[in-house]
């Protein structure tokens, strides 16, 4: 007898990170509608089953566009989640029947990481509700979405170590070194001294001081900087551990 | 009408790297049997459809064990390949019918990277032929296996930058700094000067000189070293780019 091979639906789920004005990482959550489930329990990660003619990367691009209205977003596939029981709770089964079709026994999902400036206008063509949620306030989510978010955080940590420039996808176009430090501290597991950080950053020719300082701030007004991606590409000097 | 969602078989494929005595990276290939295809064209990556009760990580562990007889191997999931046309060549369809079942229209695969000391005895319980193949001599392979190998090479490059210790999975237990340098050069895209490399390596307390030097070599006999993983874990000092 031939073994029982999986024959499955496949989805993509996207974890979109933003960095808010309180120096916290946030994630974009959407709402799913299930009549007898309290509203506050209906948050989920944006995602979709993939179509029969789609590659997963194309599906993830589609989901991000449907979610934000933004055409080009930084996108990184990071992991396939295939626990046989990941879509087996009664609420999840009920929602899949309503959203997709009945009798979906299993969905394997491919998870993506994306980055978005938090002030960017979100213009969803699909979801009524799209909300930023601080990562220390993520509610209990359906499927294995909490697990996916936890792993996405480990992934963004690795990412920042291999490509420091991703932080500039999250910062405003002009930013202070304080903001850069707060963002780096929010992502990296390394504790880095503020003074050392400042010194290190000043040595990077791709972080360029502007003739402009903060206004209307309680603390001492700091200078704004901008990131020069062309200079960054030229400065590619990763360091051997 | 509801859209046409993919309903698919799912497989895992494993790219196992080794480092040979000519200082070249190698990959483990197996043979598939197809009667009317010349033998030299039957190489492929080791892989398998996943069973209905399996998670992908478990399936990859199974494939590696069936391939090598080794129970614990370093394993890293790196990418899901889901091009709708990846399993559509007549030979591939013929082989899938024979190996699995007829009418498999599409397989999505999750690719894994693994590392193996090239002198380790390979004891396959599944494959008759398991061969190391230097990466500059990889033949034309079925499905998108050449693409998977190309991407696995980019992945191992990134991996060595985030976790330098993976090189010691590929080196013999006792190794010379020359071997370490050759391996690092074979993987990394960075050109690093031999003298600087030697200096850097000497500063790492987790690379420990032994009281033993090479014998029977044409060049000047070099000292052997060993890797201390406990000291390495303590020395975790990644560097900000």
From TrEMBL, chains A, B:
The family database entries (InterPro entries) matched by this protein are listed as:
NUDIX_hydrolase-like_dom_sf, NUDIX_hydrolase_dom, WH-like_DNA-bd_sf, WH_DNA-bd_sf, WHD_NrtR
Record protein name field: DNA mismatch repair protein MutT
Origin organism of this chain? Cloacibacterium rupense
Which SUPFAM superfamilies does UniProt cross-reference here? Nudix, Winged helix' DNA-binding domain
Nudix hydrolase domain mapped to chain residues: 11-146
Residue ranges of domain NrtR DNA-binding winged helix in the record: 167-227
Taxonomic superkingdom:
Bacteria
């Amino acid at each position: 007898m031939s073994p029982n091979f999986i024959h499955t639906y496949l989805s993509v789920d996207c974890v979109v990170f933003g960095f808010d004005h309180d120096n916290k990482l946030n994630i974009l959550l959407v709402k799913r509608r299930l009549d007898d489930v309290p509203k506050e329990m209906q948050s989920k990660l944006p995602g979709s089953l993939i179509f029969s003619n789609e590659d997963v990367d194309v599906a993830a691009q589609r989901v991000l566009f449907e979610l934000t209205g933004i055409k080009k977003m930084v996108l990184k596939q990071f992991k396939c989640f295939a626990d046989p029981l990941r879509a087996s709770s009664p609420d999840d089964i009920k929602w899949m029947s309503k959203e997709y079709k009945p009798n979906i026994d299993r969905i394997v999902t491919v998870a993506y990481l994306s980055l978005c400036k938090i002030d960017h206008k979100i213009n969803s063509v699909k979801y009524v509700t799209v909300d930023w949620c601080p990562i220390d306030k993520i509610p209990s989510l359906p499927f294995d979405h909490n697990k996916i978010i936890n792993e996405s955080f480990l992934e963004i940590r690795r990412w920042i170590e291999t490509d420091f420039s991703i932080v500039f996808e999250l910062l405003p176009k002009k930013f202070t070194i304080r903001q850069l430090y707060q963002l780096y501290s929010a992502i990296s597991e390394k504790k880095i001294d503020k003074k050392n950080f400042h010194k290190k950053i000043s040595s990077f020719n791709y972080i360029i001081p502007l003739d402009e300082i903060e206004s209307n701030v309680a603390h001492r007004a700091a200078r704004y900087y901008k990131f020069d991606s062309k200079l960054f590409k030229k400065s590619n000097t990763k360091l051997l551990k």
